[in-house]
Amino acid sequence: MIEQPLLDxxxxxxxxxxxxxxxxxxxxxxxxxxxxxxxxxxxxxxGESGCGKTSVGRSxxxxxxPHRGExxxxxxxxxxxxxxxxKQLRLKIRMVFQDPFASLNPRRSIxxxxxxxxxxxxxxxxxxxxHRQVQQALSNVGLDGSFAARxxxxxSGGQRQRVGIARAILPAPDVVIADEAVSALDVSVQAxxxxxxxxxxxxxxLSMIFISHDLGVVGQISDRVAVMYMxxxxxxxxxxxxxxxxxxxYTRTLMAARPKPDPRIRIKAGIEIGEPPxxxxxxxxxxYAKRCPLxxxxxxxxDPALRTIAPGRLVACHNV
Length: 320
Ligand SMILES: Nc1ncnc2c1ncn2[C@@H]1O[C@H](COP(=O)(O)OP(=O)(O)OP(=O)(O)O)[C@@H](O)[C@H]1O
Ligand SMILES: [Mg+2]
Description:
Blueprint: E1 7-20, E2 23-37, E3 42-46, H1 53-60, E4 68-73, E5 76-77, H2 83-92, E6 93-96, H3 100-103, H4 110-120, H5 127-140, H6 157-169, E7 175-179, H7 187-204, E8 207-212, H8 215-221, E9 224-229, E10 232-238, H9 239-244, H10 249-256, E11 307-310, E12 313-315
Parallel strand pairs: 3-8, 3-9, 6-7, 7-8
Antiparallel strand pairs: 1-2, 1-4, 4-5, 9-10, 10-12, 11-12
Helix pairs in contact: 4-5, 4-6, 5-6, 6-7
The structure holds adenosine-5'-triphosphate (ATP) and magnesium ion.
């Protein structure tokens, strides 16, 4: 029997409204995104700034209102859940936010910030239990217990990122959505936080959606990678396949743009990237057509569907 995915995202679309030249316009931040996440799996979501990665994460935990689609978690549709069930769900799926400085209250001690969710949900039977769990969460992310009394401005970027992770894991979630969890850190601290996430995955049996604009970083931690472009997934494959044989022309560009390309990888690069198309005026056809070296007539009229081209491998392109 095939195991049910832990999380099953089906046809997720999220729109925002924005003001432009006095008019209200719609931004299609996420467009018909589908993927699954297995227990203990790490799925990387990669793509350039503004392609909709954060919006996918925020839609899953219902911080952004999705326009269409379903998210099935442990067999239940998240979007039709309310009341207590929704509260429970918010303990099971936790997000590590893109900017830990912005998500930490500057006037709250680190200990109080870490305990916040537990306080709200009544998870602590006593003050002593609250203290014990905060100390445990700090220890789990490799921080000394004395950090509980400190304040966000007294911490380094890497330490703040660890606090963000401690907040997320305190209620022992099943899924962590880590949004650009290492992007603001220098390379050696990046490696430490990546190792921490990998260790937590093992020790807590976590599943993870790991969001980053950097395919090199995503490749270090993910089992599978989904590449996003203008709100859509354009390629999904096991990490090794994406790195050794990227297929979608955009994935190839991302590979070529990695800061430290692996010398084993040979990419027929030299792809001209060009300006990204406007989010406000979605072109007809494939959104990547304007920048694509493989463009043909059909690309300007028909938006290619994501199709399976090998087991576990999906690509949205007319010409591969
Ligand atoms: N609250 C909002 N209101 C209006 N538009 C929004 C809002 N949040 C995001 N957007 C727009 O939706 C699109 C996707 O944004 P999102 O933050 O999901 O991208 P991202 O891939 O996470 O980018 P980055 O790598 O810069 O974090 C962008 O065009 C953005 O401007
Ligand atoms: Mg983002």
